[in-house]
Amino acid sequence: MLFSSMTFCFVFLPVVLLLYLTAKKELHNGILLAASIIFYAWGEPKYLAIMLLTILINYIAAINIERFFNHKKIILLCTLITNLGILFYFKYFNFLIDITNSVFHSHLSFPDIVMPIGISFYTFQALSYVIDVYRGECKAQKDIYKLALYICLFPQLIAGPIVKYHDVADQIDSRDVNFEKVCLGVKRFIIGFSKKIIIANTMAVIADKIFIQDPHNFSHLVAWLGALAYTLQLYFDFSGYSDMAIGLGLIFGFRFMENFNYPYISKSITEFWRRWHISLSTWFKQYVYIPLGGNRGKLYKTCVNLGIVFLLTGIWHGAAWTFIVWGIWHGIFIIIEKIFNIKDFEQKPHSSAINIMRHIYCILIFIIGWVIFRADNLTYAGQYLANMFGITHLQKETFIYNLSYYCTVTDVVIIIAAVLCSLPLFKNILDIKNKLGIAMVNLWLLLLFIIAVSSLAAGTYNPFIYFRF
Question: Is the pTM of this model over 0.90?
Answer without folding.
Answer: yes
